[in-house]
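Issue: copy button drops trailing tokens. Both records pasted manually instead:
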Amino acid sequence: MKKKKILIHSIVFSPDGVSTAYLYNDIALGLTKKCYEVIVLTTIPHYNVVESSLAKQPLVKKLLGLYYESDFNGIRVLHVPLKKYNNTIIRLLSFIYWHISSFFLGLSVNDIDYIISPSPPLSIGFVSILIAKIKKAKFIYNVQEIYPDLLIKHGGLKSKILISSLKWLEKFVYNNADAVVTIDQQFYNQIVDRFLEPKKLKIVSNFVDNTLYKPITDVIVLPEPFENNKNKIKILYAGNIGFFQDWEPILYAANILRETNIEFWIIGEGVKKDFLIEKIQKDQLFNIKIFPYQNRELIPFINSYADIHFISINKEMEQEGFPSKVYTIMASAKPLIVITGKKTPLYNFLSELNCSILVTENRNENFLKSIVELANDKCKQNELGQRGYKVICQNYTKEKVVEKYVQIFESL
């Protein structure tokens, strides 16, 4: 019997080293184990280029560089050039080129049965719908972040014409997809009224590869430039350093705790990284250590080496995102301090699990208080970590979540 073919159309995929790429890497591998043929249509690595990953998955130039191909564990991956240019106009032109090229490249793939695309960007759904209509395939849109809400509430998008256009595009994608998957009940409640047929909208959470992210009890020695000093209590954040995060509580806590044995590790890249570096130097907050993105294989060891993890979400954007790193932290059996408002997707997820400390008001003072109390209570650290680990094993492994996607494919 011929295998059904799934086209994953995503703006990031291996060997790019970001969370959505890792998520869809695992989905692709999980679907192949379920006897689907999977092909991926994506960009060239441009967000976080990990040289070791690129060496394992080299890109081969096709048609004089109009696109590239690579092999990801036996899965064919098509890469259209897209780069993060400093010039806004050139960046926009590159973005448009990616959409047009991916449309025609998608049409070149034969016998597609299903297409799945994660947001952002919202426009990827439009291109995927066109491909699906022409190829007579079923299209599933995966809402990882809610656009254009996130852009509007953050304040970066004020043009009424552009806002109206994006809202039209959002409704077009939702109502022309065969199914839409969102990752949380809060997200579901926020967008369900935008559907002509609400039954199209499903909830499928994200997940974690618990064969990679797991408790590590062996003695961990990290490479340079990390300091292997267990006398210091490490408070860790690893991920995008951007506007979605609220950095004020971290700077406040670091200032108060500068003479203690507590230090903050921030690992990643993003538009707010230079701001943080400048604040650290100006205020001499040398108990904050900033590191670049690390290879995915090293993150489980860093997660386990840290004593406490933190996530701090910007008040203006907390309704539109759900940081998937919460799953990897829980899978590592580590305690978590989360700064977020009530009635947000992250609060909704964590509030009944009792595996984290939730700071919902008086952010600066209560974040500081939570750090001090948890840093001095090893028993509570262990209790929170073990509860989170148990929840992951029960509900959020990649096998269980991939099976939910399979059920949606087969129901269409």
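Record 2 (pasted manually too):
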Amino acid sequence: MKRLIDIYYKPSRLIIGLMSGTSYDGVDAALVRISGSGLKTMVKLLCHHHLVYPSSFRSRIASLLDGRPPDICRMNFELGDFFSKAALACINRSDLNMAQVDAIASHGQTVYHIPPELNRRGATLQIGEPAVIAHRTGLPVISDFRTADIARNGHGAPLVPYADYILFRRKGMVRAVQNIGGIANVTVVTPAIEDVIAFDTGPGICLIDEAMNLLFKKPFDKNGLIAKSGRVDTAILKELLSHPYFSKKPPKSTGREVFGRDLLHGISQKKRLRPEDLIATLTHLTAHSIKLSYERYILRQYNIHEIIIAGGGSRNPYLVSILKEVFKPIEIKPSEAYGIPSQAKEAMSFAILANETLSGNPSNLPRVTGATGRVILGKITLP
């Protein structure tokens, strides 16, 4: 406990954030120096490292959605080992050593997410055993960020809006920070944190990646070249955009349970598309579902000055070109324009949330998640 007390009183901390998203491509580790806490927080990225999952390991993670308890149990500890390797590799790439680091923040790998319903609390499961990470690194680990919010009847997602506000707020401006990971989510960053809204807009690149794996035996559509070579099936696109999720009002969250393999199977049963046409249609689904979400829940209330994009989808030039077209005249910029690598942003975000945990501060936003109150996020595991 003395170690935690010493960390609590430090004016600045070195924290490694770890993130493995719904695209299952690997672990992002971001080493950041964080000064202060709350709205006075200052963040500097020192190092970022992406540790790629081997294809067989990635397939095993993907299968957990329908997995057996023994499979999930084993993967929990194996992911703990993999996350530890990512943290150690990140340190090795920096000019620091592990003894100088204060803590590790691990989001974990989402296995299943159930949003709350009327009179029924939601549930969520992220794995990647923090005790393994703590043992291998010798550092305190903050993990399980979502559960405290869900315990207060929230969605437990999205949680990065607090970090988005810290990183991107600007006096007199309203910015939309659009993450396009496996699932896409948006944060409307307003001058006052009380006015921030955020929610999952729907599929990011999860459906595209799933289809690429099934049809082309590739993990993703590099540079969007397959989608660019195909033709959009407008009838299928229109049907997909009528999915009930897009009509739900925020607070809301979703995952591969909704936008995953079962949805792809349903498309293939209704109509046989050329593989290239399916990838093109799914790419347009991501872009147009994002635009639809803005039209319904954002642009009627906020004058958006610019959209900042991050996540794996931001590195798909074809997808980005569609977004730029449908959002004209709103300018779209990559997070790199503000010194934050798109691949590192979410790992950085959970380091910021861990800093609030270590400071004893709540960091969920009830207006965003639907929780009944603010709570301190995360559980602390000591080495």
